[in-house]
Amino acid sequence: MDYESVESIVAEASDAIEFEMTSECSCESWDEGTDTSSPSSECFGCWDDDKDNFRFAVVNPWLERNGWDDDTLIYLYSGNLGWNRVSGWTNIRASEVIDALTLRGDFTLRYKLEGKDLTCVRSSHDELGAMFTFSLATEGEN
Ligand SMILES: [Zn+2]
Q1: Which of 12, 24, 27, 104 suits a disulfide with 40, CB 3.0-4.6 Å?
Q2: Distance 98 CA to ligand 1 centre (A)
Q3: What angle do CA 77, 115, 23 make, to 5 degrees?
């Protein structure tokens, strides 16, 4: 995702913000001979670039709207994890909203920020869209 499209996402901050992270490399290489771009055979670090964009477009407004910071303890819940659709939860730091959901192998994370509420749908070989919710962890949930 290039910088311009990130800016347009931020400009529409009153609407729902959607952001997709995928484990698949999206790097492209430019062929000067034909003036076309094509999927690159080597990765130039698109995952980390996307993470930086995600931070700017989603994490910052999410924390700001809730009055939280990177260290705020977040209750992460899903009701349909994996092929057998079990429920599970864990407490994470707000800064871990991506790292907590990554898998080995191919996966796609589709985040959505609506008002103060962040959700994510994860798709992978074993999952048909596991839905995650993020809320403030309260005392007693340990
Ligand atoms: Zn790449």
Answers
A1: 27
A2: 17
A3: 55
Which DSSP helix (H) or strand (E) runs through 89?
strand 86-93
pLDDT tens per residue across all 142 residues of the chain: 555 666 655 555 567 899 999 999 989 998 889 999 999 989 999 999 999 999 999 999 999 999 999 999 999 999 999 888 999 999 999 999 999 999 988 999 999 999 999 999 999 987 889 999 999 998 654 4
Q: Which domain holds residue 136?
A: 3-141
With tokens 């910071």, the residue in question is: 69
140 CA → ligand 1 middle, Å: 41
Q: How many domains does the chain have?
A: 1
SS3 content of the chain, % helix, strand, coil (to 5): 25, 40, 35
Q: How far is the CA of 21 from the centre of ligand 1 (A)?
A: 12
Phi-psi region of 84 (alpha: psi -120 to 50; beta: other; left: phi over 0): alpha
